[in-house]
Amino acid sequence: MSTAHRPTWDPAQARDVKGASRQFSVRDMAAHTKLKFRQVGQTSTDEVKKRDLRAELLLAEQEAKNKKRKAEGKPPLPLEGAPEDEEANKRRKLLQEALEMDKDDEDDEEEEDEEKKENGADR
By C-alpha distance, which of 51, 54, 61 is closest to 85? Predict the structure, then answer.
């Protein structure tokens, strides 16, 4: 085997080079220096919070059951939870929150009435 097949560990350098070379390898440069962030539509945490995942899961399960029934030759079951648009979901959630707040207010009023009765009875 000749010496031509061996790697050059110490490459030849010129004798008259006075300054350092300004060339450097691409492999010496930093790579992957920027992070990617999720864009709108890539299921960010805010988008997931807005979605009703439970309803989507139930609907997907219902559709799968209907597909299986259709393959068996049976008629499909009626959809129980038809898909609602986002506004309907928002409206439903707001109503539920309002009901919960009303329940809390009623509890507070009852406690205040009881305190007034106790204070009135002590006098």
Answer: 51
CA distances from 75 to 57, 78, 80 (A): 22, 9, 15
pLDDT of res. 47: 84
How far apart CA 14 and CA 21 sit, in angstroms, is: 11
Element (H, E) at 51: none
Q: What are phi and psi of 5, to 5 degrees?
A: -90, 5
pLDDT for 33: 92
CA atoms of 81 and 92, how far apart (whole Å): 14
From CA 17, how far away is CA 38, in angstroms rounded? 50
CA dist., res. 86 & res. 51, Å (int): 8
